[in-house]
């Protein structure tokens, strides 16, 4: 039996879940190098979503993110990795989440390469998408410069 970290979902089944974010302008980070190229050097505000097949990603996280991105102030860069798919990229993203245990979904805001706001799975499940959006909007207003 494969270890949990090596399990990959059927790419055809995952595609619509990926597209919910890529259609919003998220760039997929598929390798460790992709992750380091962004989180290791990006000075601009960057929203990172660890996407997932779970119900709280579908019902709360992705809709909450989509709603928050309609706000007038948003991060300059949007990136995502998919838990259970690009395992090395996900592991590398999580290495930037210092002080936080691995979970998915996650929504993290980085500014100048520093983690400034985090929503862990426990902060997402059991909440409405509108509540997720409100929290993200507050973080955007606090940490993202106005145009």
Report on this model:
The protein has 147 residues and is α/β, with parallel strands linked by helices. It is built from six helices and five strands. The protein has helices at residues 11-22, 32-39, 55-68, 87-95, 121-124, 129-143, and strands at residues 27-28, 46-51, 77-82, 106-111, 114-119. It has a five-stranded mixed sheet, with helices on both faces. Strand 4 and strand 5 form a beta hairpin. Helix 2 runs parallel beside helix 4 and helix 3 (55-68) packs across helix 6 (129-143). The radius of gyration is 14 Å and the shape is globular. 35% of the residues are buried. Residues 1-5 have low confidence and may be disordered.
Secondary-structure element order, N to C: HEHEHEHEEHH
Estimate the mean pLDDT confidence.
Answer: 93
What Rg do the Cα atoms give? 14 Å
The counted number of beta strands is: 5
| Class derived from helix and strand content | alpha/beta
Please report which band the strand proportion falls in: under 5%, 5-15%, 15-25%, 25-35%, 35-45% or over 45%.
15-25%
- The number of distinct helices, counting runs of at least 4 residues, comes to 6
Described by the principal axes of the CA atoms, the overall outline is: globular
Output the strand order for the largest sheet.
Answer: 1-3-2-4-5
Question: Which ranges are low-confidence, i.e. pLDDT below 50, for 5 or more consecutive residues?
Answer: 1-5
């Amino acid at each position: 039996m494969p270890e949990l970290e090596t399990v990959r979902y059927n790419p055809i089944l995952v595609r619509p879940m990926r597209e919910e974010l890529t259609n919003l302008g998220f760039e997929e980070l598929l390798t460790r190098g992709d992750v380091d190229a962004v989180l290791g050097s990006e000075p601009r505000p960057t929203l990172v979503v660890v996407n997932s097949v779970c119900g709280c990603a579908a019902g709360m996280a992705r809709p909450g993110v989509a709603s928050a991105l309609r706000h007038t102030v948003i991060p300059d860069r949007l990136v995502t990795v998919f838990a259970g798919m690009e395992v090395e990229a996900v592991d590398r993203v999580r290495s930037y989440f210092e002080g936080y245990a691995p979970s998915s979904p996650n929504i993290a805001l980085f500014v100048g390469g520093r983690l400034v706001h985090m929503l862990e799975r426990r902060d997402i499940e059991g909440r409405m998408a509108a509540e997720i959006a409100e929290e993200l909007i507050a973080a955007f207003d606090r940490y993202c410069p106005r145009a």
